Amino acid sequence: MVHPMTSRLIPALAILLVSTGALTTNVWAAKAKHPKPAAAVEQPVTVESLLSQAHDAVGKGDTELAVRLAQAAIVADPARPRSYVALGDIYAEAGQPDYARSFYDQALGIDPADADALKALTTLDHEHPEHTARANQ
């Protein structure tokens, strides 16, 4: 003898399984009809793409991710001043001028005439004069 509660649940479970199976079949059928667009194919990771993603992360307020992406750009090409400037910009925007200054200085160590690093240091000196005095001691 089947318990009365079980006999009431069996039809409900059967309906659930059938509807789920139909739903799953429809999802798979839809994927087969609409394959992944060619543009969605993964592109190789470049320094430019890492810096672009870091910029996007800053815009979304995810400073930690932005820092990691900019660090990855530095690791990928340590001779590129732009990556150091980008990381300095992230730290400057995050209110950490000492870290920012160190990365601007590293960029200038690679290219003493780097316009972005020079401009960023000038802005940093103007916005945080207390850190400029300490840095010059």
In words, what does this structure look like?
It is a single chain. With 137 residues, the protein is mostly helical. The chain folds into two domains: 4-35; 47-135, Tetratricopeptide repeat domain (Serine Threonine Protein Phosphatase 5, Tetratricopeptide repeat). The protein contains seven helices and no strands. The protein has helices at residues 4-33, 47-59, 63-76, 81-93, 97-110, 115-127, 129-135. The longest helix is centred in the N-terminal third of the chain and has 30 residues, at 4-33. It is globular and about 50 Å long. The model is unreliable at 1-7 and 9-28 (pLDDT under 50).
CATH topology name of the largest domain, in short, is Serine Threonine Protein Phosphatase 5, Tetratricopeptide repeat
Helicity, in percent? over 70%
Total beta-strand segments: 0
Task: State Rg.
Answer: 27 Å
The parts where pLDDT drops under 50 for at least 5 residues are 1-7, 9-28
Outline: globular
Biggest sheet character:
none
> Quick one: CATH superfamily of the largest domain?
Tetratricopeptide repeat domain
Specify the CATH class of the largest domain: Mainly Alpha
| Individual helix count | 7
Distance between the termini: 91 Å
Number of domains: 2
Helix and strand succession?
Answer: HHHHHHH
Mean pLDDT, as a whole number? 78
- Architecture per CATH nomenclature, i.e. the level-2 architecture of the largest domain: Alpha Horseshoe
Strand content: under 5%
Structural class: mainly alpha
